[in-house]
């Protein structure tokens, strides 16, 4: 944040395409994100590359860190501009409910809808982008998350069971709908939100 | 104290009459009962006895309740809401104490309190400090029956636990001020009071954490003295309480933190039995203490010598505590909602205000007051009693209808699923990552930090190596799901597996084996028409299954010595090594079997519950088959074979047909194959259960046991299974391939006992199938069998490398001699076999 020399540029960027940038993200958050974006873009190239994100220390130790970084770069692109940056993060904006004054139910399907939040999580599993979490993909995630104490064999049986648990049509893989269904009891809107992005 | 038994009897009665307890919280009933009892005692003894002594209360009655609530506190939920909890506990309690005290003083100044209540501002503040704290015992007793949503519960309950520090400090500070006399109190004393708030609360928490650390560390080294594990938990937690109490720190906070902090590591370290012991002992103690507290509260209230009534004071206090509680909650919530992701809505606030129950802590504190220093003590006592009774009885009674009427979100208990657990972890990681990206070090960031610190250092230090796995939550859910499946499966009456359902094989289950085998025998010797339900159930599934069952039975026999040894040793805690290893092994086996049955139930819904096994087998087959097909090209040929035979055994293979018709049919039609299938099945089963006992189903067909037994010890994942299947397939096909097989196998043959599987297999087959097979059988006989026998050893080797426990090897050795024996008997026809079988079992049992 200390390196935001072009703070004069902030309004310009925001003014350029406020809605394209970040629908429904408040100005304050947007400004904050912009500062963060510039801080991450340490050599001021105007976009972020994977390396920029990988330099965030904590992400390196996050078991899903690589996948999450990848999700900032859709379709294999190498550059992440500010609108793209905000668009990804906008999914984690809390869902405004009745009690909250600052809601705007204009967008039909806002980025922070339940389904979009779920979709973000889903694509972390679905590496080959075939719309299904196969057993193999499940196993890979489990391997990342469960750690070394559990043997491969046991991991496999966990993966099997996890897939079977959610798999409703018996195709041995978890589709997005099945994925959403398996979490229908969970308060996703609440779990997948970060307050400061309000 | 003989009458102490009475409350429990009464409690049992309350529980029996659901109608009463569904309307009236137990705590109310207990207090009322206490009142009645107190009246009786008073009438009989002419003086009040069995009072609630503060010493007893704080030293013996309170700690178990607090430990229980700290230990079983849902820590994730607690820390998720820590901010709110702390605010309510600290700010809320301070607010309540000062406003109530000041308002009462104002009431007195206004002349609404009778002048005989001699109290100054400090006295009222002291009274306010003791009456303002929400009581954990009362809250727990009432809220546990109300089932509001978790967030609401944890906030109210967490507050009641953590506000102890504030209460203690306020009480002590005010008490000392009163004793000093308000004139002597200087500015520094106020500062000291504020400082002591931090010292007492943080000190108490620190003491608790230190003991939690000690406790976790100690349990790491109790591997050989399992028996002291539960004792350690209680001793050290109590030591934390006493230490904090001695140091004048917040003892409740200490125990809460101790329970909260140690649980994760202790649970991972101690044995399963110890876990159960700790759980139930803790719950029992807490429940006892709670019962006694409420009873004593009721009894103590009868003692009119202790209290003096003043309507103004009583009514004023009641009004003020309700009013200021509500006001405080609203104000704090408004502030908190600015920072909360999920704001607390109005209904939550109502419940929170109304749920501020006062209880025994306030009563004990007020009893502790010194009458010489505080002349109005008797009035305070009376007021406290009324307040406690009012909150526990009136509010306790009405909170349930209120919650219903306001439609407060109830807690919904849904079973944990692996998906939820896994995805929840994913979400945590995602959120932590997003916070990293955003550059905001918020809650998720710190939680993530903590978890990594915990993983890297704390867990390494405080947990046994062998306990790591238990620690993993995903694994834990997996484990619990499997256990649940097993239990429900057994409950369903799946007779095939009835006693294998749970991990630990026991003597009774072995007996059941013998029984079933006897019925088998009867059936065998009887006619083909079986009216026995059990038999009918099993008959449909076909011979192969019976085979499998038989193998299973035999496996059971073979396993016996080992388990027997274990059983005799488990009474002492010296042999823990063996036991632990076995537990682990059995557990893994169960996992595997549960998985299979889960699969099968999921996919073949149409089956009756009593037939899990065939399904399972079929299912597994399929998996294995798929794999083999991918790897070697043999299977297709087998399919060719099967087609003809499929017709023959339709009845038997019916079940499997949905999922994998081709394979089962294939196996069924070929006697040999069929045996192989059975073995795989058995193997699986044996592997899995480790318990072997059960074989309800009936037929006694010894041949395949040889195979099964050999492989029995070897247990491994599906990859291995695949190999296994492939061995079958080669058996089936073969003539051309046999030479190759034989060569590769010849070396192994020496290891395996001479196979004679075929003959029995054929005899078992129904006539029709026999006919069709006959041409093939002779061809296959010599060469096929060998592969089937030769394979196991190789598999076993592979399996051993896979399996973690070294137990397999001895096991297999044990098996060898028996197998040899079996092989010889194979050739004899059915009845002879069955005889043999039974004898074998008996022998095994001896």
UniProtKB/TrEMBL annotation, chain A:
Domain EF-hand: 113-148, 154-189
Domain of life according to the entry: Eukaryota
A GO term from the CC aspect: cytoplasm
Keyword line: Calcium, Cell membrane, Cytoplasm, Lipoprotein, Membrane, Metal-binding, Myristate, Nucleus, Phosphoprotein, Protein transport, Repeat, Transport
Compartments where found: Cell membrane; Cytoplasm; Nucleus
GO biological process: protein transport
GO molecular function: calcium ion binding
SMART domains documented for this protein: EFh
Alphabetical list of PROSITE patterns matching this protein: EF_HAND_1, EF_HAND_2
Keyword Transmembrane (UniProt): no
This protein's record includes keyword Protein transport: yes
Cited SUPFAM superfamilies: EF-hand
Family: Belongs to the calcineurin regulatory subunit family. CHP subfamily.
PANTHER family on file: EG:114D9.1 PROTEIN-RELATED
Protein name per Swiss-Prot or TrEMBL: Calcineurin B homologous protein 2 isoform X1
The organism of origin for this protein: Balaenoptera acutorostrata
UniProtKB/TrEMBL annotation, chain B:
Biased composition (Basic residues): 610-622
TM region(s), chain numbering: 20-44, 56-73, 85-107, 119-140, 152-173, 194-218, 238-260, 313-335, 347-367, 379-399
Entry keyword Lyase: no
Keyword terms of this UniProt record: Antiport, Cell membrane, Endosome, Ion transport, Membrane, Sodium, Sodium transport, Transmembrane, Transmembrane helix, Transport
Domain (Cation/H+ exchanger transmembrane): residue spans on this chain: 17-405
Main location, first listed in the record: membrane
Annotated localization: Cell membrane; Recycling endosome membrane
InterPro entries: Cation/H_exchanger_CPA1 (IPR018422), Cation/H_exchanger_TM (IPR006153), Na/H_exchanger_3/5 (IPR018410), NaH_exchanger (IPR004709)
Family, as annotated: Belongs to the monovalent cation:proton antiporter 1 (CPA1) transporter (TC 2.A.36) family.
Name of this protein: Sodium/hydrogen exchanger
Lineage: Eukaryota, Metazoa, Chordata, Craniata, Vertebrata
